[in-house]
Amino acid sequence: MTATDPMIHEDDLPGEEAKLDPQPEWTPRYPGSGRLEGKVALVTGGDSGIGRAVAALYAREGADVAILYLNEHDDAQQTAKIVTIEGRRSLLIPGDVGDKEFCDRAVAEVVETLGGLDILVNNAGEQHPDEDIVDITEAQLRRTFQTNIFGMFFLTQAARPHLKKGAAIINCTSVTMYNGAKDLLDYSSTKGAITAFTRSLSENLIGEGIRVNAVAPGPIWTPLNPFGGADPEKLKTFGEKTPMGRPGQPNEVAPAFLFLACDDSSYMSGQVLHPNGGMIVNG
Predict the structure, then answer these.
(1) Could you tell me where the Basic and acidic residues compositional bias lies (predicted)?
(2) Which alpha helices (H) appear in 61-209, and where do they start and end?
(3) What is the DSSP secondary structure assignment for residue 120, as one 8-state letter?
(4) Is the N end or the C end of the chain the one with fewer CB atoms within 10 Å?
């Protein structure tokens, strides 16, 4: 095993959404209005959780959707079915976003199969809780950064030649970047890097008419925590510390990704939206 191999031996990541109880809510809450009509979107981590909800909402709004995922094939097939039921084309591409060659091949396949690329959603991520910093292995540290931030660089590099004026990039950061998380030191650090990457990439691309923004979800009920090694006792009260007193659902986060992908946010770049149950952060 190399330092950047998926750490499936340490936990059950990425985890099957079908095994969660209760099931996450991904269904869009309103009819589409054509806000992404004719667009092509690439969503990483699109097999489940927030990624699935974003794929479903983008399809409802008129986009064809390429779904990148690691290895949860059943979940990915379900997401593809959701997209096609909305009358749009879907494309499944399994692989590791921490592998630059895979990212290059994936973007090329999207452009060739779906005819272009207008929206890049960098959503894929992984986390591995540890109570003490000395418990974080070198392999885990490298793996978490490889997936969570290196993958965003690799995909953006591959996508950049295909993105034209009016294109949008949306990155998934986290409330842990703002509030910290004592048992997610490496994960939170990557989310800080993602926020800095978002702001800097916005400055880099805004002159080309390409907008770059981010979404920083709070505790959302997805496979990430249950299958990422979270304490079962903590899961019983997951999200209860938010002002709303509950975890969010993926379909409560997806509209933020839609807003940042469409012309409704035409005067926004370098910004972060915070669907987090009412937690006040220094955005």
Answers:
(1) 7-22
(2) 73-85, 100-114, 138-145, 151-159, 176-179, 185-205
(3) E
(4) N
Query: Does residue 11 lie within any of the structural domains?
Result: no
Total number of domains constituting the chain: 1
Task: Tell me the CATH number at 211.
Answer: 3.40.50.720
**CA separation for the pair 136, 58 (Å, rounded):** 37
Q: Which two tokens stand for residue 38?
A: 């004719």
Would you call 178 a catalytic residue per the annotation?
no
Residue burial 162-172, b: 16+ Cβ < 10 Å; e: rest: bbeeebbbbbb
Residue for token pair 């996450």: 24
Q: Is residue 9, in this structure, part of any structural domain at all?
A: no
Which of 58, 178, 187, 267 is catalytic? The answer is 187
Closest Cα partner for 158 from 125, 113, 226, 111?
111
Could you give the CA distance from residue 239 to residue 246 in angstroms, rounded to a whole number? 5
CB 23 within 8 A of CB 17: yes
If pLDDT is split at 50, 70 and 90, which confidence band does 283 have?
low
Contact, 87 vs 65, CB < 8 A?
A: no
Question: Average pLDDT of the chain?
Answer: 91
Structural domain that includes position 122 = 17-273
Instruction: Write down the pTM of the prediction.
Output: 0.91
3-class secondary structure per residue, 51-88? HHHHHHHHHHCCCEEEEEECCCHHHHHHHHHHHHHCCC
